[in-house]
Design goal:
- Helix 4 packs parallel to helix 5.
- The chain has six helices and five strands; from the N terminus they run E-H-E-H-E-H-E-H-E-H-H.
């Protein structure tokens, strides 16, 4: 198995009133299905992450936000909003649940699962690029994982999609090719360090304080 995991974020089923049925998001579901199938074909582990928004798991700030917006909680356990659509976990594939959390690293056991398998590179698919995907990609980058977000396997909810992808490229060094680009599955190689960079780090290193007198 390669040192790469595919993270599948929350994707609700398309249907009346479903977010996945609006703005061409059904195409995202189709592209994600193809990406997951390709990952399995290559022997790349597929990790599923679901979201539930039940009030019992919400913090005070989350509940206050919902009251201010005048909106009921979404993706309740036992409803279609908390289910995977079309792309379902295969036997033996790991499933993690984010309980009123955007970031998959806040799901119990998620990071430990990746570390135990020596994963270095995460490929993201699912909804939404500016919510769950971005939250998790941000943490992944800061924890040392390489980030790839196939551009046709997600879309945004609140912000212009191309701006979201550009932000990820700049801030997280994320790659955003189409899902049919073979480079999606390549673990990015570290750039060779230059002598100038090493000398710069040496100059910035803290110097010992010498006692006076």
């Amino acid at each position: 198995m390669q040192s790469v995991g595919t993270l599948f974020c929350f994707t609700p089923p398309p249907g009346p009133g479903s977010p996945a049925d609006r703005g061409g998001r059904a195409a995202v579901v189709s592209a994600t299905a193809g990406g997951v199938a390709e990952a399995r074909r290559r022997g790349v582990e597929v990790v599923f992450v679901r979201f539930t928004g039940d009030p019992v798991h919400q913090g005070a700030s989350w509940r206050l936000r919902d009251r201010g917006r005048g909106r009921p909680p979404k993706c309740l356990e036992g409803t279609w909003g908390a289910d995977f659509h079309r792309v379902l976990p295969a036997a033996g594939e790991a499933v993690f649940t984010k309980r009123a959390r955007f970031d998959a690293f806040l799901a119990a056991g998620f990071e430990e699962h990746l570390r135990a398998r020596g994963v270095e590179h995460l490929v993201f698919a699912g909804l939404f690029a500016d919510v769950c995907v971005d939250s998790t990609a941000r943490t992944a980058f800061q924890k040392g994982f390489h980030v790839t977000v196939p551009a046709d396997c997600t879309t945004s909810l609140h912000l212009p999609y191309e701006e979201v992808l550009a932000f990820m490229r700049v801030l997280y060094g994320a790659r955003t090719p189409a899902s049919d680009d073979p480079s999606v599955w390549d673990v990015p190689a570290a750039e060779p360090r230059h002598r100038e960079e090493e000398e710069g780090e040496e100059k910035c290193a803290p110097q010992p304080v010498r006692p006076r007198g």
